[in-house]
Amino acid sequence: MKSMNFLENELYKEDIAYVAEIELPWHKMQNKSILISGASGLIASFFIDVIMRKNQSGLNCKVYALGRNVEKAKKRFSPYWETPFFEFISHDINTALEINVDSVDYVLHMASNTHPVAYATDPIGTVTTNIIGTNNMLDFAVKHNAIRFAFASSNEIYGENRGDVEFFDECYCGYIDSNTMRAGYPESKRCGEALCQAYKKQKNLNVVIPRFTRSYGPSMLMTDTKAISQFIRRGIAGENIILKSAGTQYYSYTYVADAVAGLLTVLLKGENGNAYNIADEPGDIMLKDLAAAIAEVSGTKVVFELPDDVEKAGYSTATKARLNGGKLKELGWTMKYDVKKGILRTVFILKEKD
Questions:
Q1: What Cα–Cα distance (Å) separates residue 51 from each residue in 34, 66, 261, 323?
Q2: What residues form DSSP beta bridges with 212?
Q3: Residue 223's pLDDT is what?
């Protein structure tokens, strides 16, 4: 099959249109500018697609897309590369950022190692991106008079469920064994949130914190080693789904269109200093049932295999991490795609892309 751009896929265009047409105070972004780190990632790239779609109907929002790999970015954002409302900036966020503009209205820090092999093979980079990188982005936001800063946080900040709740609300604090390599990701995300609060207090920066669940969708990176990403990759290749545990882990998952709808809701309607879970019960599923759902869609089956040492070192120790999305729903957000519908769309879009 011929290779195709995401934006040519009808289902993907439907997803972009759905988010672009959600009733939100879009006027807050009219003739404004956004700088977004981790631009080529799952959520950030979809977010950029939505903004560029809105620009076709007059939003006139300039996107500064920050990333490390120019070639990868040029391929992903080729439809926008020469347009006046898109500019790619090649930069490592672990160093201070300087661009030749007086102001940037919104700063979204989306860059992070977000999958198990990266946690295990680059534990230093995992921590520094979430702390040094976050500090650099916050400092940039202050110096460039940003209206609002959004820090992409994670369900992992909650740690392990202590067995006292079914769902994590935004105030929950579970157990993390901080004296381990694997703690680097959740602890540094916690530190990133604390930095946001420090800048809010000391520099009067307006901050919001969207807390994402295990997100997935057709814009996922093919290098991602999260279990759901491995399942999807094998499914679209027509291979059996390999489950490397008993699969009893019970987690919240969010399809990328719903995740970006949540991000936009937090960005445009969230309260200064607040964190919001982007999750709802239709996205909750046990890992074994997730594997079975992807196998069913793909016409394959689930097989069991032991993980190697690198994979095992990067795995989350949490066995139950279901998030309460009630706070975000009060702002008007709703989950459009339950996990099985989201999986179906992802597999169909990626199969056609290949």
A1: 10, 15, 12, 27
A2: 154, 278
A3: 77
Tokens of 251: 């987690």
Residue 245 lies in a domain: no
Q: How far apart are CA 334 and CA 64, in angstroms?
A: 28
Confidence of residue 129 (pLDDT cuts 50, 70, 90): confident
Residue with tokens 């519908």: 341
Cα 210 from Cα 151, distance rounded (Å): 7
d(CA 98, CA 83): 22
User: What average pLDDT does the structure give for the chain?
Assistant: 91
36 closest CA partner among 21, 50, 15, 23: 50
User: 3-state class of 249 per DSSP?
Assistant: coil
Whether the pLDDT of residue 198 is over 70: the answer is yes
Q: How far, CA to CA in Å, does 74 sit from each of 34, 53, 213, 254?
A: 18, 18, 28, 27
Specify if 247 maps to a domain.
no
- Angstrom CA distances, 95 to 53, 74, 91, 184, 233, stand at 31, 22, 8, 20, 33
Domain with residue 43: its CATH number is: 3.40.50.720
Residue type at 144 in one-letter notation? H
Query: Which residues in 77-213 belong to E strands, given as ranges?
Result: 86-90, 106-109, 148-151, 153-154, 207-212
For 276-311, write each residue's pLDDT tens digit.
999 999 999 999 999 999 999 999 999 988 766 665
Q: How many domains does one find in the chain?
A: 1
Give pairs for 11-18: CB < 8 Å, separation 24+.
11/345, 11/348, 11/349, 12/218, 12/349, 15/46, 15/217, 15/256, 15/257, 15/345, 16/46, 16/49, 16/50, 16/53, 16/257, 17/53, 18/257, 18/261, 18/336
Least Cα distance to 349 among 256, 241, 212, 254 occurs for 256
Closest among 277, 106, 133 to 206, alpha carbons compared? 106
Q: What is the DSSP letter of 175?
A: B
Structural domain boundaries enclosing 105: 6-216+256-281+325-340
